[in-house]
C-alpha cells in the first residue's frame, strides 16, 4: 500500500427521479467497480464517494425522513459490496460509512477503509439551495472531514460537494447554472472549507453542447469528441475566459468519453433526439501546487449496463491518486465569490419546499382527482 498518496474513487449518477430498490446491489456494484471484469486484480481505494442526483421523485425530496430508509439502504448495500470484495481478496472487512449528507433529491455518501484510516473530530455537513424560489429543487450538499493514516499525525481535510444545477439549453439557463454554482459555494464554504487539502465538486452540472444535435455525429471518434469539447461545450468555454470565476482553482481531467446525457430509457447507446447529447455529469477537484499531481487519475463514464438503463444519464467515475499534504500542496485557497441572498430567501424556500412536497404527494396519490371531483360536485349541487 502506498502511504504517500491518497487513492480516491468518486462516482456521480443522476437516477432520473427513481432508484429501483429491488436492484440496488447490481446498481451500486456497477457504480463502485465500473470496470471490474472479475478476473483482473481489483485495486481497492482509501475513500469511495457516491453522489446521487434525482435519487427520488422531486416532491419526495421535500421530506427527508421519507427518504431516510432508502439512503440508509443504499449506504449499507455499498458498504457490504466493498467488504465482499475485500473478504474475497484479503479475508476481513475494512470499509465503513464515514458520513452521508442530503438536500432534496441530492445525496452524497462517503465510505472509507477504517483498518488503516482514522477520522478526527466532527464530520461537517452543509447544504445550499438554488432551485426556484430558493427551494431544494436544485442545490448542493457538502460533507467535509479530517482524516489521517493510523499512527500518522498529519491530518488532512477532504471536502466533497455533490450538486445539481439548473437544467435545459440556452444562454439564460447557462447563466443560471453559473449563479447556482456561485450560490452553492457561497453557502457551504467558509475559510476552513476553502483551505481543504482536497476538494471535489461533482454532480449533474447540466452544462450543454451548444451546437445542434446531428444524429450522424460519430461519438466514437476521438477527433469529434475533442472538437465538440473545445468549440461547443459550455463549461470548457466558460473556464477559458480569464474574467470568469466559475470553478476557478479546480482541475478536470481530460474527457475522453462520449456525452452522458440524454439517453433513451432502457436503451444502452441511443440518445434521445429531444436534447443535444451533452457532458452534463462531471467531477472536478482542487488544483494542487505541483501541476503533475493533478494528472494522475482515470476519468471515465460508467458502462450503461442493464442495471443502469432506468436513467437517461450515464454515471461518471473519477479514480485518482492524490498527493499527501506537505503544507505546500493543496493549501491554496479556492476563490469563492460571495453570493448575496435576500433576508427572506430562507423562509420562502421552506414554504416553497412544503408546497412542492405536499402538492406532489397529492398528485402521486391521485388525490387531485378526488379534490377536483369534490369541487365539481359542490358546484353542481349549488347550481341544482
UniProtKB/TrEMBL annotation:
Domain Inositol polyphosphate-related phosphatase per the UniProt entry, residue ranges: 4-328
SMART domains noted in UniProt: IPPc
Annotated GO MF terms: phosphatidylinositol-4,5-bisphosphate 5-phosphatase activity
Entry-linked Pfam families: Exo_endo_phos2 (PF22669)
Gene Ontology biological process terms, A to Z: phosphatidylinositol dephosphorylation
Protein name, per record: Inp54p
